[in-house]
Design brief:
The protein is an all-alpha fold. The chain is built from 15 helices and no strands. The radius of gyration is 23 Å and the shape is globular.
Length: 279
Amino acid sequence: MDKYKLKKKLISMILPAVFLYLWNYYAVKIGNNAILPTVGMVFYNFVHAFDNFVGLGSIPKNVAYSVVRVLLGYFIGAAVAFPLGLSMGYFKPVRNFFENFISLFRPIPSIAWQPLVLGWFGIGSLARLFGLPYGPAFAVWDNFKLSMIFLIALGAFFPIWGNILFGVTNVRKVLVETAKVLGASQLDIFIHVLIPGAGPTIINGMRMGLTASWVCLVSSEMLPGSMSGVGYLITHAYELARMDLVITGMICIGIIGALLDGLFRIIMSRYFSWENKVK
């Protein structure tokens, strides 16, 4: 078994190794860091991650701001999508009332909302929303603009809402009817029948919503007033022709996104592995 796992890991490393080789080969051949930096330049950025890169801040600092923004927007989007998806999936009148209206906004990309969101929120932030006095705490929380959080929440909302609606709608009716016959209340049906029955689809929707939140992050951090974050780092590094920093930021987003996605995969394999055996 150990030899099999080792062989599997070695095979999985072939493609990344080929990719890094080709990347570095063509970077050296082109010889222009403003087009394609070498692997060594990007690696140098990670080794010196705590340096203040061209006045844009350190990599951990920008990553931390981005992670907090994503999680704030994600949980707000999920908090709205979860009860709405459940109620629309279970109560047909509620679905008929909301579905067509919400579906109108679903195809609109987050970047198209930027002008409107700026008009709504301006440069308002959590620090201003909660009336924090000027000082160190204000300087930190002023980085979390309401417009950014709104765009991220909007991006997270649709995949979570859509998957919950689909999952609840496809829960077998016999389970719901049996629960009613046994005297279950509406709350019991939601907690003990609908949520477990639609569990795999709900978790998949939460996973997709988190991915969408990261996609919306970069566009939200391009908004006026942004002074931190990975998207901010990528945008301004591009303006300074620092493609090594652009790629560094992209790798950071990829790694963090993969780690968070891995958490959902662990949850699905640990608590919903029965789904594959039932079919």
